[in-house]
Specification:
The protein is α+β, with helices and mostly antiparallel strands and about 140 residues long. Helices cover about 55% and strands about 15% of the residues. The protein has helices at about 1-30, 55-65, 95-105, 115-120, 125-130, 130-140; strands at about 45-50, 70-75, 80-85, 110. A 4-stranded antiparallel beta sheet has the order 2-3-1-4. Strand 2 (about 70-75) and strand 3 (about 80-85) form a beta hairpin.
Length: about 140
């Protein structure tokens, strides 16, 4: 009787383990497969221009960017020689917009991408949140 009970327990444990492995595989597949970009998602990008700008140049750049597909909002700062715009990534990309800007207008611009240090110091609220503290604790624990 004891051998039969042991076989049933081992078979049940093996079946449970196998089922958990299958569930884990399905979970990993669902989480890691590519997801479509939401159509209502907006992204902000910044372009640093090499050439000095005046108000007419800023108006020309703003008008040009508003004519581009997927642009939502544009701000051009002539004093800082930069342009900030928001766009829908489901319709276009920042590289395509900046490429069109450089191709069609005489302002050589490049996209500004912050460094890791700048990204870490970007949001002071995140450093005080419970989630950040828990992440920081577990990250330094291991």
């Amino acid at each position: 009787m004891k051998k039969g009970l042991l076989k049933k327990v081992l078979a049940g444990a093996g079946l449970t383990f196998g089922l958990l492995v299958v569930v884990l595989c399905v979970h990993i597949y669902i989480v890691t497969r590519p997801k479509p970009i939401p159509t209502d998602m907006r992204i902000m990008a910044r372009v640093d221009l090499k050439k000095d700008l005046n108000k007419d140049d800023a108006a020309k750049i703003t008008t040009f960017l508003y004519q581009q597909k997927g642009i939502d909002h544009v701000l051009c700062n002539p004093a800082g020689k930069l342009v900030v715009f928001t766009f829908y990534p489901a319709k276009t990309s920042a590289e395509q917009i900046i490429g069109n800007l450089n191709l069609n207008l005489p302002y050589n611009g490049s996209r500004f991408l912050p460094s890791k240090e700048q990204m870490a110091s970007g949001c002071p609220v995140a450093a005080t949140s419970f989630t950040y503290k828990a992440y920081h604790f577990f990250n330094h624990l291991f």
